[in-house]
Structure formats: C-alpha cells, structure tokens
Design goal:
The protein is of the alpha+beta class and about 300 residues long. Among the domains are: about 35-110, Antifreeze-like/N-acetylneuraminic acid synthase C-terminal domain (Type Iii Antifreeze Protein Isoform Hplc 12, Alpha-Beta Complex), CATH 3.90.1210.10; about 115-235, no CATH class. It contains three helices and ten strands, in the order H-E-E-E-E-E-E-H-E-E-H-E-E. The strands form three sheets. Strands 3, 4, 5, 6, 7 and 8 form a six-stranded antiparallel β-sheet that branches. A two-stranded antiparallel ribbon has the order 1-2. It has a two-stranded antiparallel ribbon with strand order 9-10. The longest helix is centred in the N-terminal third of the chain and has 35 residues, at about 1-35. The radius of gyration is 43 Å and the shape is elongated. It starts with a helix and ends with a strand.
C-alpha cells in the first residue's frame, strides 16, 4: 500500500518536472528569439538644444524591436559624438540622421541654415518686430516703405518685397523660448533667405523702412499685391470685412457679401409730382321760390 502511494507521488513529481522543463525551455526559446529581434538604438539621455554639439554624456543606447527602429538611427555613442543637432531633441527620443547637420559642421547658427540659403540680420524695433512676438521658426513677410523716385519721400509707396520668410533667430537666440506666449523684445532678427532675396532685403533696408508681418504656419501661399501710395491709400475701398475665426483656413473664412454701392441723395431720382385734377367750371345758380318751397336752378 505504501509502495503504491510512493509510486503515485513519484509519477506526479515526474509529470510536474517535465511540464516545468518544457515551460522553461519554451520561455528561453521565446526570450532568445525576442532578443534576436532587437536592435541597439542611440537615444537622447537629456534634452539636446538646436544648434548644439552632441557629447557622449548626452546619449544612451537602448533596445528597439527591429520593426520599430527609426530610419537613420545609430547603434553606438561613438558615431554621434561631435555631431550637431538641427532640431530640438527631447529626452528618450531616438537620434536619427535627419536630425543632425552634416559631419564636420560647426555648432551654432550656421548648422541650421539649409544648403542654398543664407542668414541675414535686420534691425527691428517693437513695432517692426511685432512687439517681440517674432520667435525662431516664425514665418513672416517683409514690407518696405520707400520713395520710388528718391525725391525726399514726396510720394512714398509701401510694398511687400519678400514673402514666407523663416526667422532663424531673434537677437542671439536660435531656440524657441519655453513659454512662446511671452514676448521677447529684441533689436535684431535673423532671416533665412536665398542669395537673390538677400539682395532685395539689403536694398530695402538701405533705401526704405522695413516692417515684418507675421503669418500663419499653415498659410505659405503667395499673395500678389500692387503696393499702395498716398493717393490710392485715401481712395481705396474701406469696406468692413468679416473677421475669421483664429487659425481658420481660407476655405473656412466667411465670404464678404457683395453689397450694392450706397447712392447719394442727389443721385436718387424723385417721383414726378402728380398734376392737380382740373377744377370744374362753376355754373350760374338762381334761387326760385314756389309757394312754401325753395330750390336752386343752375344755368349753363
């Protein structure tokens, strides 16, 4: 009887042992397969500001699944040390080739200028700089007020000379502030322009007065304008236009109604006065008395 119980316990222990061994084997096989499906990816250990040179202490290597590995990712710290970031890189964010300047690029403003473009600085005041709300990354139009004839500003004209220009820096700052809603008063703004645009901007800054006009990040279209001088400024249409909602697209903005022009009182035609009806010709009347009766008789 005791041998039978011992045999049952032994068989049960063997069964549980086999099941445990199979489970551990499967777990190890799965873990090994998962490990083979991982890639080493270098990520930022701390925030890396735009235009700064990356150092080894700012990077760490983690494991990423192969199907989730970003394109252009790096697998070691050595390959990233000394490279310059062209965008702000957040902590735990993978560092890819598209976020870096070309090898050998120096840190600073020159690292974020695209090929074929130039950085040009213009002086601004609180009015021209939109009260300090122009931050790096803002898109602006450049308006110049200039005397086209060069005769003492007898008939100056205001005209948009550059459109959809990116702001690279305000003052010495090439990065956006932590609170973008706060104005930052500066005396100079650096713009990203092509060589041809740089020539226009230099002439406009020398011969006239510049004004920067902020535009929406989603509105990058081109607007054709004729400019305005004193004469057509006073004679231009001053009809009130409906105000769109903040951030509305052009297709979402209310359309202005085509109202007929108001006519002056002198141009309004008055209805002709109605001629009075002719009065009937009075007839001669004679009063006749017949006994107790009295009556009037008319004669033609």
């Amino acid at each position: 009887m005791r041998n039978k119980r011992f045999f049952i316990v032994l068989v049960g222990a063997l069964i549980f042992g086999v099941l445990a061994a199979v489970s551990v084997s499967r777990y190890l096989s799965s873990a090994q397969a998962y490990t083979k499906n991982l890639n080493k990816v270098a990520v930022a250990k701390v925030a890396i500001p735009i235009g700064s040179k990356i150092i080894a202490e700012q990077i760490m290597v983690v494991q990423f699944p192969k199907e989730s590995t970003p394109d252009g990712a790096f697998d070691s710290v050595e390959k990233l040390a000394g490279r310059v970031a062209v965008v702000n890189i957040a902590p735990r964010e993978p560092i890819t080739e598209s976020r870096l300047a070309a090898e050998g690029t120096a840190a600073g403003l020159s690292a974020i200028i695209p090929e074929g473009y130039r950085a040009m600085t213009v002086k601004v005041d609180d009015a021209a700089g939109i009260s300090g709300f122009i931050q790096p990354g803002t898109l602006v139009d450049v308006v110049v007020t200039i005397d086209p004839e060069g005769m003492g500003k007898q008939d100056p004209i205001s005209k948009i000379v550059l459109q959809n220009i990116k702001v690279l820096a305000n003052g010495q700052n090439i990065d956006k502030p932590e609170n973008e809603r706060e104005a930052n008063s500066v005396k100079a703004v650096t713009l990203q322009v092509t060589p041809e645009q740089a020539e226009k901007l230099a002439l406009a800054a020398t011969e006239g007065k510049l004004q920067l006009v902020m535009r929406s990040q989603i509105d990058q279209g081109n607007e054709e304008t004729k400019g305005v001088n004193k004469r057509n400024l006073l004679n231009s249409d001053n009809t009130a236009q409906p105000v769109p909602d903040p951030g509305a697209l052009k297709s979402e903005q209310p359309k202005s109604e085509n109202r007929p022009a108001r006519r002056s009182s002198s141009s309004v035609s008055k209805p002709a006065a109605t001629a009075p009806a002719p009065q009937p010709t009075p007839r001669t009347q004679v009063e006749m008395i017949e006994g107790a009766k009295k009556r009037n008789v008319e004669f033609p």
